Amino acid sequence: MSNKAEVEDKEPVNEQAIANIYGAMRSEINQLHSKITELEMEVSEHSLVIGAIQPLDPSRRCYRMIGGVLVERTIKEVLPAVQRNKEGLEEVISRMNEALERKKKEVSEFEAKYKIRIRKSDGEVKDDGDRMEGSAQGVLVGPAGAKNE
User: Which of 50, 63, 87, 89 is deepest in the core (most CB within 10 A)?
Assistant: First the structure.
């Protein structure tokens, strides 16, 4: 990890290095977004379970998967645990959303610093700012996930 921090602290030497750093940053954003989506699905599943077992008799038997083992419990024992898990997942999602926003801000600052524009797949160029006239040069990179050839 310290090697990555050293690379980001130094000024990139050429356009390829800038593009590689930018690609890694975009990849991190995509990974965060994917993980958030996955956790939101788990929260949804927890909500379904809570909704299904809450109105039932607390002494009724139910089964819960713990570490790959199906364990017999009562609803009275399982419901609070499922609710705690759901709250924990929601807290993790909240922190990951904050991290995602920080990373998006970092990427937009990086784009502004190196005048990065995104090439669309049909050859058009996405330009967030006004077109600058003169000799200002920027780095042009392909869409995230596209392979450089």
Answer: 89
